[in-house]
Design goal:
Length: 112
Amino acid sequence: MIDSNKIKITFGETVRELRRLKGITQEQLAEFVGLQPTTIASIETGRAFVSSEALSSLCNYFNVEPSFFFFNRVRILSEEDYDYIDDIKRALPSFSTSKLKEISNIIIALQR
């Protein structure tokens, strides 16, 4: 079932992640989109939604399609995240089967 609050939260989380990846403040994003910084804060927390004009500005600024904001995802990975993933991948072959099972169990537990 589709819930309008969930849509706003998913949208806001995506805006926040994209803004952080770009290394800009809510104030800087607000200036580009033509909104107040408090409105950006409300959007990022799912308390407010954007107009089609603001959505268009966000798409152009972040160079994404409108649908990108609505996909449910854990989070958007940064370059630093990919570096950690690569480090983990390089280390895994050196572990025994029992240690790999422990690592797998830890990862599963952390995802909950």
